[in-house]
């Protein structure tokens, strides 16, 4: 089966905004800084070098040592944390929610993309150091988005009542989920490893933040990956000036609103007047400004301007940025060059450049994460027998079935030639009609439309009849596509890494590192 080059732009799985970004369309040029090409990283390095102090680097390095003190870190990761103190060290970041057991496959792809880009940058720019970073979204409070994953055709769910930031949720109730997971995994050495990994991550750690940190470190510890939690007082202290600016002048609201007034696409996110939450254990609620008073929604907490600014100075960790301000927080505390994310993430990042400029913080490069389709040898053989290419398989199901019906039919299911002939006949009639009364002209036009419509209906009926005749073969085609694109979607949005680790073990991760090319902008086809 030939491996076609399936670009993101031609795959049919990305929005017009992302396609235009990848094509570097002129209408989008003002909404990002440097496009992610290897040569442009030098410019980004120069910009970031002037905006990041040695003191900041020391604070970040110390915070990372403290956050990871319970983990067994690899020498590569320990070295990278120390390197962050050096002025010639920069990061590449990806971020994600604390999905149970990593959630969908693209969680893994984001991290591999980040690590591989750092390797590529290290070869291109040997005078600098590049550290891959995974930002844990511990402050997020949408538990329903992260409390499940798919395994062996079933859904593994963790259903408990929760409130507040998910990172602080205790994991003690996950024993029953482990039992369900073990039953789904079955027997075998890889199944035993996955069950043990789940148990060590979730039943031997205190909360979801610790569990996710442990899990990701175990999967990627030999790569030098650094894991960071923004829910940290020392890191929030670096963000104090920006927190005060947000509370007093609502700069993010004004600047993002200005951008959206001229944005040539639908908005991915809309700014609030204050883009901050008030956060404590079990609580993460929006801050609003009403009647000269700052209020925390759904609580009885309220503050004067003096009181809330004093609170920012004393306990900045109680203030949590929302989706608009989190990117700014990240770029303030880390010497970052590039953010790697999915299409939805890049869509909202593209709304933020104007805000970054107002805060005088360099806007990072934005890179679409790698996407992968994984195929077994058996699936490839079936596709070969059915003469299916990867270009075929990326089509929507109905489009694919119609295409293959026309290819397999003994007839030409295209009446274009007949319709063109009919139109020529009516051209002659129209010439005659033009020389007589208008009612006759109307009758000719109506008859033309009726007969063209009749041919179109016949074409549809012939296609439908041929689909019935070819039903068995078309069903096999559908089954192959469904195996590779479950629920007519990308694998990475539906399946968990455990399904493939169960089959291929650590070879699965190793092959991802071998194959993924972060700057290529095309689907990688991974075959086993």
Question: What's the gist of this structure?
Answer:
By secondary structure, the chain is α/β, with parallel strands linked by helices. It has helices at residues 16-22, 41-49, 54-67, 75-83, 106-124, 175-185, 189-203, 208-220, 233-238, 240-249, 251-262, 305-314, 326-333, 343-349, 353-359, 377-385, 390-393, 397-408, 416-433, 438-469, 471-484, 491-494, 497-504, 507-515, and strands at residues 89-96, 129-136, 148-151, 154-157, 226-229, 276-280, 283-290, 293-296, 302-303, 319-321, 336-341, 365-368, 372-375, 524-527. The radius of gyration is 28 Å and the shape is globular.
Fraction of residues in helix: 40-55%
**E-strand count:** 14
Judged by helices, strands and strand pairing, the structural class is alpha/beta
- C-alpha termini separation: 13 Å
Give the percentage of residues in beta strands: 5-15%
Spatial extent as radius of gyration: 28 Å
Give the overall average pLDDT. Answer: 94
Oligomer state of the chains in this structure = single chain
Tally the helices: what do you get?
A: 24
């Amino acid at each position: 089966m030939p491996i076609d080059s399936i670009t993101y732009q031609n795959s049919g799985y990305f929005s017009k905004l992302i396609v235009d970004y990848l094509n570097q369309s002129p209408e989008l040029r003002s909404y990002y800084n440097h496009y992610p090409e290897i040569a442009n990283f030098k410019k980004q390095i120069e910009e970031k070098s002037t905006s990041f102090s040695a003191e900041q680097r020391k604070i970040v390095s110390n915070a990372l040592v403290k956050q990871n003190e319970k983990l067994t870190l690899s020498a590569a990761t320990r070295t990278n944390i120390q390197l962050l103190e050096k002025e010639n060290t920069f990061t590449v970041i990806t971020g994600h929610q604390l999905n149970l057991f990593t959630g969908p496959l693209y969680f893994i792809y984001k991290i591999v993309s980040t690590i591989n880009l750092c390797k590529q940058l290290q070869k291109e720019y040997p005078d600098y150091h590049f550290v891959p970073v995974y930002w844990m979204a511990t402050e997020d409070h949408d538990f329903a988005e992260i409390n499940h994953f798919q395994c062996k055709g079933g859904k593994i769910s963790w259903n408990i009542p929760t409130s507040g930031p998910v990172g602080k949720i205790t994991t003690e109730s996950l024993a029953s989920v482990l039992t369900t997971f073990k039953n789904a995994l079955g027997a075998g050495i890889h199944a035993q490893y996955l069950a043990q990994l789940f148990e060590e991550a979730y039943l031997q750690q205190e909360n979801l933040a610790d569990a996710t940190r442990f899990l990701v470190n175990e999967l990627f510890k030999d790569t030098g990956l650094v894991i960071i939690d923004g829910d940290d007082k020392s890191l929030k202290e670096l963000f104090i000036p920006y927190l005060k600016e947000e509370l007093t002048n609502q700069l993010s609201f004004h600047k993002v609103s200005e951008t959206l007034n001229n944005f040539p696409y639908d908005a991915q996110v809309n700014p609030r007047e204050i883009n901050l939450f008030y956060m404590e254990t079990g609580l993460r609620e929006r801050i609003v400004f009403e009647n000269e008073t700052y209020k925390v929604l759904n609580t009885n907490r309220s503050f004067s301007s003096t009181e809330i600014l004093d609170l920012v100075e004393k306990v900045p960790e109680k203030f949590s940025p929302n989706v608009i301000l989190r990117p700014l927080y990240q770029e303030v505390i880390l010497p970052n060059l590039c953010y790697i994310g999915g299409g939805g993430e890049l869509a909202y990042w593209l709304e933020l450049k104007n805000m970054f400029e107002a805060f005088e913080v360099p806007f990072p490069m934005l890179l679409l994460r790698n996407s992968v389709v994984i195929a077994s040898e058996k699936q490839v053989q079936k596709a070969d027998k059915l003469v299916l290419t990867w270009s075929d398989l990326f089509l929507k199901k109905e489009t694919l079935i119609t295409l293959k019906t026309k290819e397999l039919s003994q007839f030409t299911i295209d009446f274009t030639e007949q319709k063109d002939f009919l139109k020529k006949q009516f051209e002659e009639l129209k010439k005659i009609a033009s020389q007589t009364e208008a009612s006759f002209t109307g009758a000719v036009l109506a008859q033309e439309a009726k007969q063209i419509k009749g041919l179109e209906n016949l074409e549809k009926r012939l296609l439908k009849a041929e689909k019935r005749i070819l039903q068995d073969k078309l069903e096999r085609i559908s089954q192959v596509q469904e195996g590779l694109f479950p629920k007519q979607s990308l694998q990475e949005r539906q399946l968990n890494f455990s399904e493939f680790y169960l089959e291929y073990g650590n070879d699965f991760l190793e092959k991802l590192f071998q194959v993924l090319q972060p700057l290529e902008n095309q689907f990688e086809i991974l075959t086993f």
